[in-house]
Amino acid sequence: MKRRTFVRHATVTGVGVATAPRLLEQRLTGQMVDEAPALVGLRDRADLVLRGGMVYDGTGAPPQRLDVAITGDRITAMSSNVPAGGEEVDVTGLAVAPGFIDIHSHADMNLLVNRNAESRIRQGVTLEIVGQDGGSIGPWSDAQFESNRDSWRRRGVEIDFRDPAGFVERITREEPAVNVASMVGNGALRGVVIGNEDRPATSAELERMQDILQDLIERGCVGLSSGLEYTPSGFADAAELRALASVLVGTGLPYASHMRNEDDRLLGAVEEALHIGRVAGVPVQISHLKAQGQRNYWKADAALDLIQRASDDGVDVHFDRYPYTAYATGLSNLFPSSYRAGGSRAFLARLRAEETAAILETAARDKVALLGDWNSVQISSTNEETSWARGRLLGNLARERGIDPYLLTLELLEANGGGVGMIGHGMGEQNTSRILAHPLGMLCSDGGAYAPYGPLSTGSPHPRGYGSFARFLGHYVRDTQALTLESAIHKVTWMPAQKLRIEDRGVLRMGAFADVVAFDPDTVADRASFDDPHQYPIGIPHVVVNGALTLRDGEHTGTLAGRGVVSG
After folding, report:
1. Could you read off the pLDDT of 413-430 as tens digits, one per residue?
2. CATH code of domain 100-325+427-487+516-556
């Protein structure tokens, strides 16, 4: 296959270079600094000083009581006696940490719908890693671009990009409240090269996908993602995934996978993800690790053991998980992916076709039985005509309407062109706690960007879009003490930054980008619920993004300073 010489183009701001020897030493050691006031940088007076907080630097080290001085978009001093700044924020009694990095986010295009990123910034998230589950924003063909442009234009967004690197460049121009980096989805690659067909890629098609992926990595994307329970991502076999992942060799960037199965065949799916990393020679990130269905709860420990043994054997493998016992997906995911080939119209036809209807009904009922019953399925999003279903448990809703739950499922899918969102209540609390606390695990939201007003307030989304990071710090750190605060902060800052080779973010030290969150460990908590998801968390009063005070005293300042971020 033709290969261009790999060159990292830092075309999007987000990679900084420290020049002073002392600063280089700090980057390599991750040490906290208590230097003389003269270190306040190029000016005598810092722009912003966060004063009196307990500073957790993100490395997992114990906290220190320090002031943090910020000039421009960088941290210019960390000391117990920083001089007065242009603006001062008293953070006495608060924990001060690097801005949180959501290593698996679905905020994506909603950041252009509402640039305030309300449900994200109020959780302390300052960097979103999008392009997940094989479904990045492009690459798109001309026809795909036209279709997506028309669709987003109806939501007030004009698109002028055709791939995830272009999307990240647009983020820099738009400056939402948060920073954004993107992976490249194998499903998007398949979609633009092959379409929605369930067949192996030809040699020519595979080479084209590899060339597109290499170009996007060179332009700053931070890895390859797959969503193997979805179409067309799941139509890729292990050989195709291995060939795509091989493009990442030498970059240090990961192959991140929503695995092929998360319930009855979980362990085989873990083995596949690890195998791809081993044979391709690239890092692995297992997305939202879980064991669905009570009969599979025992597999969580077995999956963790597989991952730990692979790590011990030298595989650079980590995983992430959101802090809830329910997942979110499409209602069509109750059905096997092979029957979803060809797009929504073909799938809907198969639901009623004589030769496939019984097979699909059996598969859906088995999936629901795995979760528990029909009340394990909660409808999260629909069109306006079926808005009566939003937020409702499917079993209860079917009973009220006097219809079999499966027939109601068909009715909703057909009325929405196949596009119905669902929440599946199917995981155990004990497993969730163990997964979140494991040394190889990171926190993610796996959620979108929302607001309790305007166009992002519709539907009944999974509460993780509003509450993941606050719930992690409140419920799992403070209340159940599943892990220490410094360990938890490490999992949402420096750990994901290192995994994605993102420099000068996820850590508090001289010269790093000034992404900072100040929160109260005693009160931080999520308030969003499955019945009432559009609620902000509490206990996170201050957030700084690239030196700009974006959240102050719990209120959005309206200052927007986010930008596109690349690895390097």
Report:
1. 999 999 999 999 999 999
2. 3.20.20.140
